[in-house]
Amino acid sequence: MNTYGTLFRLTTFGESHGPGIGGVIDGCPPNIELDQEEIQRELNRRRPGQSKIVTQRKESDCVEFLSGIFEGKTTGTPIAFFIRNHDAKSKDYGHLAHAFRPSHADYTYAVKYGIRDYRGGGRSSARETAARVVAGAIAKQVLRREGIRIWAYVSQVGEIALQKAWHELNPEAVESNEVRCPDAPTAEAMIALIRQVRKEGDTIGGVVSGVIEGVPPGLGEPVFDKLHAELAKAMMSINAVKGFEYGSGFEGAKMRGSQHNDLFYTDETGRIRTRTNYSGGIQGGISNGETIYFRVAFKPVATLMRSQESINEQGEKITIEGKGRHDPCVVPRAVPIVESMAAIVILDFLLRHRAYALD
Ligand SMILES: Cc1cc2nc3c(=O)[nH]c(=O)nc-3n(C[C@H](O)[C@H](O)[C@H](O)COP(=O)(O)O)c2cc1C
Ligand SMILES: C=C(O[C@@H]1CC(C(=O)O)=C[C@@H](OP(=O)(O)O)[C@H]1O)C(=O)O
């Protein structure tokens, strides 16, 4: 479906080469003073054309709010918004009207619907994620009032992996370079690799790490809607995502219980804490009050600036030319998308948690 969330719900609409992209947020709490410039700043972090290592499509991505906000505050009614497309170059997609790009969504959309907007991949384009960033920026502002902070950063591009854990990093440094890795020497190496790959007409994958601090204990449902299950779904719903892990993740499979167990203690304020955090802040699908941290793996972008073998709608062998403006690596622009999806999930669970208490 085109809607996500239980109490804080986002519906998105639009295509990459249609008039624009937008959304409707239902269930946002009323009387929240919104900083609209901050929402625009978040969109600017995702915007195409923001640097030399991303797609060169030039969009201002200016968001226009149509409802749900009065005198700068949320009214509790649906918040509808629209972002107009200004720089779609649809002629770059003419050769794909009856052909399928390898590993994009052209074939699966054609087989599912029997009709597709081939221009820019239509609805399968990551342009849709602009709407998620608007909702995420609003959710983040609500969560900040609750002392919850969400941040993400690029921790890997190809084989270049940041060798520091989240707690050794300065979140303020994420925006200090165009790849969004908060460690300057690693960022430099990542940028050089993306430039090199782009020069070769190729693309490369990467990892975005996410951190959620200040989550109270008790968020999440115990069986199906486990907090980590919803985070996984939210992250896996982002274009080009191939993997999600939280806490010790796949590394945990190599460990023994005696190493992996997070031992409890009571701190000086009387709060129950754990000495280690292999659980990643979630036990039994419910937050335990420790920091939630996770990793999201993105594949290399499917559209290459070189020719590739493929087939057309008749199943005949063809060669697809590399054309248009594409990201050589998605992770620099995926950082605000990951933060946004995390914020939407956490706010939704916070509202669900509050619904348990009547006073
Ligand atoms: C921020 C971002 C930017 C992307 N840019 C491109 C792009 O320029 N070209 C492209 O072919 N795919 C791009 N993608 C990936 C496609 O949208 C994605 O591969 C496609 O929808 C097929 O879905 P799947 O890879 O999840 O199976 C991007 C993804 C993200 C998250
Ligand atoms: C437009 C955006 O990124 C696009 C994401 C995308 C894809 O296939 O996902 C392919 C390219 O689309 P187009 O060729 O139509 O410009 C990117 O530029 C955006 O993120 O706003």
From TrEMBL:
Q: How does it assemble?
A: Homotetramer.
Q: Which family does it belong to?
A: Belongs to the chorismate synthase family.
Q: Supply the name of the protein.
A: Chorismate synthase
Query: What gene name does this entry carry?
Result: aroC
Q: Which cofactor does it need?
A: FMNH2
Any Pfam family from its record, for instance, is: Chorismate_synt
List the molecular function annotations (GO) for this entry. chorismate synthase activity; FMN binding
Task: Give the superkingdom in one word.
Answer: Bacteria
Annotated GO CC locations:
cytosol
**Annotated positions binding NADP(+):** R46, K52
Annotated cofactor note:
Reduced FMN (FMNH(2)).
Please give the catalytic activity noted in the UniProt record.
5-O-(1-carboxyvinyl)-3-phosphoshikimate = chorismate + phosphate
Output the SUPFAM superfamilies linked to this UniProt entry.
Answer: Chorismate synthase, AroC
Record's function text? This reaction introduces a second double bond into the aromatic ring system.
EC assignment: the record states: 4.2.3.5
Q: Which InterPro entries match?
A: Chorismate_synth, Chorismate_synth_AroC_sf, Chorismate_synthase_CS
Binding annotation for FMN: R123, S124, S125, N239, A240, G284, K299, P300, V301, A302, T303, R325
This protein's pathway reads:
Metabolic intermediate biosynthesis; chorismate biosynthesis; chorismate from D-erythrose 4-phosphate and phosphoenolpyruvate: step 7/7
Listed A to Z, the keywords are: Amino-acid biosynthesis, Aromatic amino acid biosynthesis, FAD, Flavoprotein, FMN, Lyase, NADP
GO aspect biological process, one term: aromatic amino acid family biosynthetic process
